[in-house]
Amino acid sequence: MTTTILLDLKWENLKSDRTFRQAMPECQFINWADAESKKADLSQVKYAVVWGPEPGLLGRCSNLEAIFSVGAGVDHIFSDPDLPNLPIVRFVDPMLTGPMVEWVVLQVLMQVRQQRRYDQQQRDHQWGELPQPSAPKFRIGIMGFGELGQACAQQLLGFGFAMNAWSNSPKDVEGVTSYFGNDQLSEFLANTDILVSLLPLTQATTGIINQQLIDGLAKDGPFGAPIVINAGRGGSQVESDILSALQDGRLHGASLDVFETEPLPANSPLWDQPNLIITPHAAAMSDPDALAAHVANQIARHEDGRGLENLVDRSLGY
Ligand code: GLV
After folding, report:
1. Is the CB of residue 200 below 6 angstroms from any atom belonging to ligand 1?
2. 233 CA: nearest ligand 1 atom
3. Which position among 233, 252, 294, 302 bears the catalytic label?
4. CB 3.0 to 4.6 Å from 100: which of 113, 284, 301, 302, for a disulfide?
5. CA atoms of 227 and 174, how far apart (whole Å)
6. Cα 87 to ligand 1 centroid, rounded to whole Å
7. 71 Cβ below 6 A of ligand 1
8. Which residue among 90, 95, 97, 286 is best mutated to probe the pocket of ligand 1, counting the most ligand atoms within 8 A of its Cβ?
9. CA 108 / ligand 1 centre spacing (Å)
10. How does pLDDT run along the chain (318 residues), one tens digit per residue?
């Protein structure tokens, strides 16, 4: 029997299902972006590949066996109130990890080397050197220390930064001091000059980057005020708290790729904050070919009994 795969992809770079058809020529596809697909018999669907699936859609696929996330995060799947209780596979691939590492390293270096201030000096035709503290003087704290966080830490260690990480459970990574659980959060923050958040969005992480957290960060670092970098989820940050800390100097700078509301509304005051770097949820886009190859590989594993990898733990929400 032909295997049927439902695609509800949303991302601009994934609009075409060509790469999926090429990677799995023996399968049949229902692309939810096509108006015609709405007439399809969803009881045939065995696998679904989704980003922000239409609420209730997965529940209507009565013979579904597994759900694949288009991205590393899965909060867009859990927001479906009728989500069936089936395995959910995260997208883990070097083609996603690489761009995330590039973005995080870029932002750390932009902040540490004060590039925004040099940009302003250039606009003002002003020549003037700014302080240049060396990398080992900065303590970087990564919140959310899974696949992506650990890959970022490896590159940042190469520059000589002092590395800390905070996660749910202890992590044993050479060169990185591990903090875990709520009990160790304040100690982690007090030892962090540059906070990098790669946290998944769960109940526990919603709004975690707020005034209290910002005020708990180290103030004795090279710039006398900490820096916040977030490429996890916008729902983890309280933007009004970040903005006021940037304005009154409690934060030296920030880089945000994710926002409470996306797209970031044109009238948001964040756009005009000089010590804030904004990118439009573009840190790491899923590569269509890599995603299709990953789904094909996981389906093959599932079908021949080797089992799915990178499964979401429902009790943790990621
Ligand atoms: C992007 O936001 C992802 O989850 O990969």
Report:
1. no
2. 2
3. 233
4. 284
5. 24
6. 18
7. yes
8. 286
9. 20
10. 899 999 999 887 777 789 999 999 999 999 999 989 889 999 999 999 999 999 999 999 999 999 999 999 999 999 999 999 999 999 999 999 999 999 999 999 999 999 999 999 999 999 999 999 999 999 999 999 999 999 999 999 999 999 999 999 999 999 999 999 999 999 999 999 999 999 999 999 999 999 999 999 999 999 999 999 999 999 999 999 999 999 999 999 999 999 999 999 999 999 999 999 999 999 999 999 999 999 999 999 999 999 999 999 999 999
Residue 162 lies in a domain: yes
Would the CB of 72 count as within 6 Å of ligand 1?
A: yes
In Å, how far are 23, 27, 37, 43, 289 from 5, measured between CA atoms?
12, 7, 12, 11, 16
CB 7 within 8 A of CB 49: yes
Q: Do residue 244 and residue 261 come from a single domain?
A: yes
Sequence-ordered list of residues with C-beta below 8 angstroms from that of 233, at least 6 positions apart, any chain: 73, 75, 199, 200, 201, 205, 258
Q: What letters, b where the CB count within 10 A reaches 16 and e where it falls short, cover 10-27?
A: beeebeebebbbebbeeb
Is 252 marked active-site?
no
Quick check: is 113 catalytic?
Answer: no
Nearest residue (by CA) to ligand 1, atom 3, is 71
**Domain holding 108: CATH number?**
3.40.50.720
Print the domain residue range for 263.
94-278
Number of domains in the chain: 2
Atom of ligand 1 nearest to the CA of 96: 5
User: Do 61 and 150 sit in the same domain of this protein?
Assistant: no
- DSSP-derived 3-state class of residue 176: strand
